[in-house]
Amino acid sequence: MTAAMAVLLVTATSGCGGGDDESGQSQTGWPDKIVFAAVPAGEASTFQDHYGLFIKALSEEVGVKVETFQAADYAGVIEALIAGTVDMAQLGAFSYALAVQNGAKIEPTGLLQHRKGDQPGYVVLGVTKASGTLSSLDDFRGRTVCFPDPASTSTLLPLFEFSKANLAPDKDFKRLVVPAGNTIPRAVKRGDCEIGLVADAQLENAIRTGDVAEGELKSIWQVRAPHSPVVTRSALPDDLRTKIRAATLKINSEYLEGRGWCKGDACLVSSNRDYGYLPVEHSYYQVIWDACKATRIEACGPIGS
Asked: Per residue of the chain (305 residues), what is the pLDDT tens digit?
């Protein structure tokens, strides 16, 4: 077990499932609790802000107590899924593929949807200071580029596209890893890097929170990427997984506001402040396997072999 798995935050949300017994299962054959994991964006206290209401609603809809596991990075979540100490997790597309390839018995339960009505997926932007002269992918050459977590989709998909353009990291440009991707707009603003790779929602949030001003950064390149799944362990009973899926697709910001638990942006789900979830199948993430086989980056591990 890694240090990332060392802290289990037992913010248990009471459900209405069956009573406890010595086996740790209810009379229905369901576990008495399920454990939900995610990686916080920024301070640890934001975990509850980003996932607390979703977890509360999930517990009520499914009828099972939900505890939370907060990992330092995706590697910690993946290890917990493989070990079976976590039952549900919010992953990125890349970390989902890594988890599956490394033996996690999981299935995608829902796909994050940033705004109501959005098509599946999100956009990775290459952003730079609006006052500068950089304007295209060619301008990445010779620059310092901020990348998020090496095991993130927002790193893998750009590298896939760069390989098609014969643009090699650490050769044609300097790579600076900033694991907390939501801080990359601020890093570009400070001048830590001349270009930063950031999800469109992360840039929106940076503007909303005042990290950068509207119009202070501009996008000079972009690529569309598959959005993040919430996953469920396949070993859970079939009827429980069915109920978890139905609840996940039901819970969104309108649902949470309708319950009277929050208002406006406070009802948004996940660290990217999303509307809710869409249905998703495993095949949606095939592009991750394709990108790993093309780039063969270290983070892909067995996917790229």
From this structure: 343 333 344 444 444 444 444 445 554 689 999 999 988 665 555 778 889 999 999 999 999 999 998 887 888 899 999 999 999 999 989 889 999 999 999 999 999 999 999 989 999 999 999 999 999 999 999 999 999 988 788 999 999 999 999 999 999 999 999 988 889 999 999 999 999 999 998 999 899 999 999 999 999 999 999 999 999 999 999 999 999 999 999 999 999 999 999 999 999 998 878 999 999 999 999 999 999 999 988 888 888 66
Residue pair 20/32 in contact (Cβ under 8 Å)? The answer is: yes
| Cα gap 63→250, rounded to integer Å | 15
Write b or e for each residue in 160-189: b if 16 or more Cβ atoms lie within 10 A of its Cβ, otherwise e. Answer: bbbbeeebebeeebebbebebbbbbbbbbb
- Per the CB < 8 A criterion, the answer to whether 7 and 86 are in contact is no
Tokens of 129: 């200071």
The CATH number of 122-225 is which of 2.60.120.600, 3.40.50.970, 3.50.50.60, 3.40.190.10? 3.40.190.10
What is the location of CATH 3.40.190.10 in the chain?
3-118+227-304, 122-225
Helix (H, G, I), strand (E, B) or coil at 52: helix
Predicted TM-score (pTM) of the model is 0.77
Among 22, 20, 42, which Cα is nearest to 32's? 20
Q: Which is nearest to 50 in space by CA: 291, 278, 236, 272?
A: 272
Please state the CATH superfamily assignment of the domain spanning residues 3-118+227-304 in this structure: Periplasmic binding protein-like II (3.40.190.10)
The two tokens of residue 207 are 């503007």
